Each structure stands twice: as C-alpha cells, then as structure tokens.
TrEMBL record:
This is Serine hydrolase. Pfam families: Beta-lactamase. Keywords: Hydrolase. Residues 42-386 form the Beta-lactamase-related domain. InterPro entries: Beta-lactam-related, Beta-lactam/transpept-like, Beta-lactamase/esterase. It comes from the Bacteria. One of its GO terms (molecular function) is hydrolase activity. The keyword Metal-binding does not apply.
Length: 395
C-alpha cells in the first residue's frame, strides 16, 4: 500500500502549484498541455453554468493529467476553494462503499455470491435468506427504507437501525427487481462490521486515508470541518419532488426526509450514514478510481483485476422501482450502460445528489472525480457534469 500512496500522492503534491486564468475565471492546480481541453471545460462551468466552487481531476493511464480547482467554498464568496477543500458528495459515497467491499473480497474475507445471512443470520427474516452480498449492494434486497415512521435519529442510529431494517419484510421478492436506497448503507455497514470487525467509517479512515493519503471520510472529523465547503441551493431541492411517491418502496426512501442543510449539522457529520455522508475532494475520488484500473505492468492497483471484474459485473439493468428510470447496477457501482460516464459501457462509478461524481473507465484508461458546492436539481442531466465528462472523450 505504501507504494500506492507514494505514486499518487506525490504526483498530486508536486503538480498543484500552477495558476491559470481563463477570461475572468482563475483556476488553480495543474493541467498538462496536451489536456488543455479539460481546463477549458472546467472554466466553462464557471463562466456559463453557474459554478460557485469546485474541483475536477482526471488521471489517464496512471498519470495525473489535470487537477484543477477554483471559485469559492461559501455562499458569500469570501472563502476561496483551495486544494484541501472537501464537500459532502452524497451518493458518491456508495462507490466508496463498493471499493471497501471489493477490498474485502480481494483479501478473501467475503465473496459477492455469499448470502448475507451467512454472516448475519437475523437478516434472513421475512424471506430475505437468499439475498447475496452482490444483491444487497446492487439495491436488489427489497429494503429501500423504514416501513414504519422514522426520524433522523433513527436513520443515524447505527446498529439499532440495521436490526430494525433486517427484521422488515421486503417490498418485492429479493433479486427480482432493484430499487434505489440510502439505507443500503446502514445494512452494508452492519454486514461489513460482522465480516471485517471495523465499521466502514473506520476502515475508510485506516485504509484509504491513513495508508493511501486519500482525503475521503465517512462523516467529517471535527478537526476538518473548517475545510468543508458550504452546499448552495439555487432553489430549495425537495427530495420528495425528485422521487414521485406512488409506492411504499418509494415512500420508504424519504422516511425520514433528508434535505441539503442537514449535511452541515454535527449529527450528520458525526454519523455513519455512509451511503450519503462521505466528504471528499475531486483529487482523492479520481485517485481512488484510478487504483481500480490497470496502470501498466508496474502500476499499482488496489485490488486484483478479477475482483474488479466481479464487482462491476452487471447485476440489474432495467427500470428502478424507486427512481422509475433505467439503472444498471453492479455490486456497489453504477455500470455505464446508460451512458452517464462517457461512451464505454465498461465504465463504472457513481454520481451524487447535486452533481458530484467519480468513475473509472478501463477502456479509455481514465479515472475522473468532480466535487462542487452549487447543487443542481437536474441529477444525471446536470450540464456541468455532462460538460466535464464530454471533455475527457473530446481529447
């Protein structure tokens, strides 16, 4: 692991001192001359699309080709976005969880085909005994949220929340459908603890941050809170309008309602609600994804190629029961059959509420991370996101 840390962290540190001006937009960081199109696209987000503060990183064939940031981390535009600014990336957190489980598989501690009930017998209640690890991570378990009224305290309760969810009857026969969920994080964390011993929060702190130097955390340590960007809503983002509620599975997703201001509260930042409360910067998300790719015969990898092949194997491709749109799920990642991550279906990653995303594309050999604070209500169709992804393949 030390050689991985050295390779990626040194690249970032040495090459982050340039300053670039694009019309009235000042960007900081590094962009290789061959990849100027990336800088231009990032600047366009500020000039034309209302970007306030953001970071954008692209790694190609194991080399850092762009690590850019600019703008402001606060709504008042007084505090500049800096190299060490982090922001809540919402559901990008699910990709981080996918990486953590891939590491467990790589270490031989668990397999994607194992039944969850093998490690957690109580989870078998109400017909869930055949749910596999892959099915759980691919949102196929039939548990999309609490089926009785719940509070934020319930959502952040950890083990009591997991036990309550494990006892529930699924909203559909597990494995037959898939439905987007945030409580997948609660269930997956409970499983992870039973297999590995540590929570995913602690595992990320030990294995991704301490060993690899990646600025990714589940929640936000108190000492890092001054580094966090304010999330800015141009208009109130109402999650109850994002998902039109016509079924109990959809109703469970917003029980309780999670809103944007919640991410700035001590309760959210101290919790282990890891399907939605990772904080990170673009450089670290891109580096994490790059470590899942083949960087060459001598390049470092986080897990073996066969494990990534199994992790990113398509588990479900169809209309999501909650989002009511086509989703292509693998074990913790969205695969790219819908085209959100460029032209190659082999790409995999995850987006987050408001616009953040990260992905790895093994065909193009690229890994991309983007973190921002101006929240969009356009989800996958966010023009800033589309612009940055398109720029990668325009080169």
């Amino acid at each position: 692991m030390d050689n991985i840390r050295a390779t990626y962290q040194t690249e970032v540190t040495v090459r982050s001192s340039n300053e670039m001006q694009a019309d009235d937009v000042v960007l900081y960081g590094y962009c290789a001359p061959k990849y100027e199109r990336l800088r231009e696209a990032f600047a366009r987000n500020f000039r034309e699309m209302g970007e306030v503060g953001a970071g954008y990183t692209v790694i190609a064939d194991g080399a850092l080709v762009a690590n850019l940031w600019g703008g402001w981390k606060d709504a008042a535009r007084q505090a500049p976005w800096s190299a060490d600014t982090v922001a809540c990336v919402w559901s990008v957190s699910k990709a981080v969880a996918g990486v953590c489980f891939a590491i467990l598989v790589d270490r031989g501690l668990i397999s994607y085909g194992d039944k969850v009930s093998t490690y957690w017998p109580e989870f078998a209640a109400e017909g869930k005994g055949d749910v596999t690890v892959a099915m759980l991570l691919a949102h196929q378990s039939g548990i999309t949220g609490f089926d009785t009224p719940a509070t934020l305290e319930d959502l952040f309760a950890g083990e009591p929340a997991a036990c309550r969810l494990a006892a529930q009857k699924p909203f559909w026969n597990p494995g037959e459908r898939a439905g987007y969920s945030n409580v997948v994080g609660i269930l997956a964390d409970a499983l992870f603890r039973r297999v590995e011993g540590r929570s995913i929060k602690q595992f990320v702190a030990d294995e991704l941050k301490a060993k690899l130097g990646l600025e990714i955390s589940v929640g936000l340590p108190h000492a890092d809170r001054s580094r966090a960007a304010d999330l800015i809503e141009s208009k109130k983002l109402d999650v109850t309008k994002t998902v039109k509620v016509t079924s109990e599975a959809q109703r469970a997703l917003i029980n309780p309602v999670v809103d944007v201001p919640l991410q700035a509260t001590p309760e959210f930042q101290a919790s282990e609600f890891f399907a939605a409360n990772c904080f990170a910067n673009a450089r670290s998300l891109a580096s994490m994804c790059a470590l899942l790719l083949d960087a060459g015969h001598d390049g470092p990898r986080l897990v073996k190629p066969d494990v990534i092949a199994e992790a990113t194997k398509l588990r479900f491709d169809g209309i999501d029961e909650v989002r009511q749109m086509r989703r292509s799920w693998s074990a913790g990642f969205l695969t790219n059959h819908v085209g959100d991550f460029g032209p190659n279906t082999a790409a995999f990653g995850h987006g987050g509420w408001g616009g953040a995303f990260c992905y790895a594309d093994p065909v193009a050999g690229v890994a991309v991370g983007y973190v921002m604070n101006h929240m969009s209500d356009q989800m996958e169709r966010n023009p800033r996101r589309i612009n940055l992804v398109k720029a990668v393949y325009d080169i």
